[in-house]
Amino acid sequence: MIVMKFGRSSVASATTIEWVARIVKSRLEDQPALVVSAMGKTTDRLVEMMQHAARGSAYSVWCLFEELCRFHFQEVKRLLGAGRDRRVGERIAPKFRELHGLLIYLEDGCILTPDLKDQILSFGEPLSSEIVAAAFERL
Asked: How far apart are CA 90 and CA 44, in angstroms?
């Protein structure tokens, strides 16, 4: 078994995710366990959204949230092609809905506790993992 870790620049876009999938596929005989970071600047965007939400800046949160959603769905479409992206979209959409709910909760005056901060910051990796998994299914 081999553990392969790919950081955010390695999973920054559809192009780099395809590269990761090819590398992992070339090592299948080693039974790879894969660890991936959040895509591109996802964690930075999550921090920004959290800060705006804690200040009650709903418009700023919404703009950043929409940008983050658009980026992920766009990269899924680039990776898989139109029509084949639906299944991955159905897997990541609930994650975005959950994130949105946490941001609204924070905007409504909830205190940004360390647990809530950790919960919000943890969304990038599962999103990336779903997209990388879809890349393997495609190859």
From this structure: 24
For 46-67, the pLDDT digits (tens) are: 999 999 999 989 999 999 999 9
DSSP label at residue 27: T
Query: Does residue 17 have a pLDDT over 90?
Result: yes
Interatomic CA distance for residues 134 and 139, integer angstroms: 9
Token pair of 28 as six digits: 């299948």
Instruction: Give the contacts of 114 (CB within 8 A, at least 6 positions apart).
Output: none
Beta bridge partners of 3: 33
According to DSSP, the residues that pair with 5 across neighbouring strands are 35
Beta strands in the chain (DSSP E): 2-6, 32-36
- Which H helix or E strand runs over 80? helix 58-80
Q: Which helix (H) or strand (E) holds 49?
A: helix 42-54
Contact yes or no for 50/66 (Cβ under 8 A): no
Locus of tokens 């709903």: 58
